[in-house]
Amino acid sequence: MSIWTALSGLAYSHTYVDVNGIRTRTVQAGPAEGEHVVFLHGTSGHLEAFVRNLPAHAQHYRCHAIDMLGHGYTAKPDYPYEIPRYVEHLLGYLDVAGVDRAHLVGESLGGWVACWLASEYPERVASLQLLCMGGTKVNPTVMARLKMSTTAAVTQADRRLTRDRLRLLWAQWDEELGEDLTSVRYAIYHEPEFGKNLHNLLALQEVETRERNLLRPDRMARVAAPTLVVWGKANPFGEIPEATAIAEAIPGARLEIFPNTGHWPQHEQAERYNALSLSFLAEVVSQR
């Protein structure tokens, strides 16, 4: 399977929109009248993280996958990318796309941004899915691993380093699609603007910066949206007690643990995740 075969049965648009002066890459699919589902990737990632999820979700919902601020092929303004900046960019995207209220699906950094937005702007969030969400702890060992592996892959013209960075996310490497994603990520990492602004993208891997951006329990307690927390049992960036603490901090949140799964549950266990997500979304919609 490749990215193209994963999307081969899907009618979608791949375009760029202006979000407050930031050229933002987006893929949109699904019925125009459907409720909006917005997919948000992790640190140094890009919208291709959801190629295994868009076709199933677009049968029922208007789907958006974006390259977040400073990521992928979205523009890279020269300032540190802290959570309020990501939230501002995401809100701007929702406004430009004409989305008053969205179901937010965030993986890792994307979950951090989605959860923060939900705590500040509850009227904009219909539901939350937090997939191996980061941002609740300061773990210098994990932060250093992410920072070093990303920096090596970006600064050295060695495709193997990009592959190694991607493999960190998976408990079980998918050779065919993994190599396709490696090619996409290698091209992104070696765009001149990406390397130039890498320090801005990795700002949250610095202890002092991360501290002031943490998702603390009092903030998570303000989340009013129905919330699904999904975690990989083999997640290399956070153990199950972290997931349990997140689910306990958010009122009414539901926790699902995927066995034999790393940091990309929506990708490694796509069939299982898609069924869970669609069931959760249908339940949220039916209870209004």
UniProtKB/TrEMBL annotation:
Pfam annotation, one family: Abhydrolase_1
Keyword DNA damage carried by entry: no
Keywords annotated in UniProt: Hydrolase
Domain named AB hydrolase-1: residues: 36-268
One Gene Ontology term of the molecular function aspect: hydrolase activity
Origin superkingdom: Bacteria
Name of the protein described by the UniProt record: 2-hydroxy-6-oxonona-2,4-dienedioate hydrolase
InterPro entries: AB_hydrolase_1, AB_hydrolase_fold, AB_hydrolase_sf
SUPFAM superfamilies hit by this protein: alpha/beta-Hydrolases (SSF53474)
Any one of the GO CC terms: membrane
Keyword Lipid metabolism: no
